[in-house]
């Protein structure tokens, strides 16, 4: 059973030239990209995305960071996509992320941890709806 997962390639990853590397790692594991765009996130979108962190001491800095430049937002689809993507990305803290994971190979700090990915089906659906209309999400089959 396919799941949808939502990801953001964070602003400093764009500035470091990692868009292709991140997409390649997802594609290598058979993950299908079904929506993708490069945007400047709005303040409203960041506030919705990180509402559970509103009271945290790192919130203001996280918000500024996410607004510091363009990001790539994407929706992917795969069996057990949430677990698969989070495995490929690695632990939130790059120091705890395994080598071979995206954060384990490129992450600098907990904030500059390269990518965001939703942590549950429910959160993926609500985060997708912050950034995409349903008609922007595409249907097609990957070649075997
Ligand atoms: P992300 O997967 O985008 O989800 C929430 C983000 O908050 C997380 O990755 C980190 O970038 C950031 N974050 C979580 N904990 C901390 C922290 N202790 N200090 C700074 N940023 C944090």
Automatic annotation (TrEMBL):
Keywords: ATP-binding, Cytoplasm, Kinase, Magnesium, Metal-binding, Nucleotide metabolism, Nucleotide-binding, Phosphoprotein, Transferase. GO terms for molecular function: ATP binding; metal ion binding; nucleoside diphosphate kinase activity. SMART domains: NDK. PROSITE patterns: NDPK (PS00469), NDPK_LIKE (PS51374). The keyword S-adenosyl-L-methionine does not apply. It is found in: Cytoplasm. GO terms for cellular component: cytoplasm. Residues 2-139 form the Nucleoside diphosphate kinase-like domain. It catalyses: a 2'-deoxyribonucleoside 5'-diphosphate + ATP = a 2'-deoxyribonucleoside 5'-triphosphate + ADP; a ribonucleoside 5'-diphosphate + ATP = a ribonucleoside 5'-triphosphate + ADP. Gene3D superfamilies: Nucleoside diphosphate kinase-like domain. Its cofactor is Mg(2+). ATP binds at residues 10, 58, 86, 92, 103, 113. It comes from Geotoga petraea. NCBIfam families: PRK00668.1. It is an enzyme of class 2 (transferase). Its EC number is 2.7.4.6. The active site is at 116 (pros-phosphohistidine intermediate). GO terms for biological process: CTP biosynthetic process; GTP biosynthetic process; UTP biosynthetic process. The keyword Phosphoprotein applies. This is Nucleoside diphosphate kinase. Belongs to the NDK family. Homotetramer. Major role in the synthesis of nucleoside triphosphates other than ATP. The ATP gamma phosphate is transferred to the NDP beta phosphate via a ping-pong mechanism, using a phosphorylated active-site intermediate.
